[in-house]
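Exercise 7b. Backbone tokens:
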């Protein structure tokens, strides 16, 4: 498991609650209908609601990309909802994470190699490389990979973001991709799903670099 995908429907009004036992409730609205799941302190999520009071409170202790909700509990843990386009095409996916300390981070740069331009970076969480794989709620095994987007590139057909590649991270958390002419935009972005460590579900990370 990594950060948890909650829904990819056209959701609105997401919220997050956490009880004193460390169980979280995530709710959202789709087409006027409210839905919610409970993510227990350990184990698989299920459709329900918490019976106890919410012990979390809003915080701005850290900065995370695609933030919808960020809360902290008395034990110092951080809890977040993020939403971004995890699939190559389609609506944003609502995702849940819980962790302590600093969030997942990415470095990103453009490098010239002869006539080629390479977009390269490294993803880490608490100093450890983000690599390997994780399982979805449905049990599918997914490789941890950096999703790469270009802004205002010819392939985007306008001033918008375009997903042009997805590259697995290497054992050291590094990744890279050469850039075709149709991918040459004014900005580039790398986004990666946060890894897991036991019951820690690290938040997703992103970095943007501007073309010179």
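Sequence design result:
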């Amino acid at each position: 498991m990594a950060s948890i995908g909650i829904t990819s429907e056209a959701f609105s009004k997401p919220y997050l609650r956490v009880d004193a036992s460390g169980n979280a409730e995530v709710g959202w609205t789709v087409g006027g209908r409210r839905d919610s799941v409970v993510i227990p302190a350990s184990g698989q999520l299920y459709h329900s609601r918490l019976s106890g009071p919410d012990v979390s409170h809003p915080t701005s202790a850290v900065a995370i990309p695609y933030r919808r909700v960020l809360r902290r509990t008395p034990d110092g843990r951080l809890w977040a909802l993020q939403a971004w386009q995890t699939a190559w095409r389609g609506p944003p996916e609502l995702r849940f994470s819980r962790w302590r300390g600093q969030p997942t981070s990415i470095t990103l740069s453009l490098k010239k190699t002869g006539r080629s331009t390479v977009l390269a970076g490294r993803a880490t969480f608490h100093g450890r490389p983000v690599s390997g794989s994780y399982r979805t709620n449905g049990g599918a095994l997914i490789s941890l990979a950096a999703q790469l987007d270009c802004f205002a590139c010819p392939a985007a057909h306008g001033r918008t973001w375009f997903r042009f590649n997805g590259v697995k991270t290497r054992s050291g958390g590094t990744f890279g991709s050469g850039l075709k002419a149709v991918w040459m935009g004014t900005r580039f972005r790398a986004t990666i799903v946060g890894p897991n460590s036991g019951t820690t579900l690290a938040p997703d990370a992103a970095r943007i670099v501007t073309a010179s």
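Instructor comment: The chain has one domain: 4-210. The chain has no helices and 20 strands.
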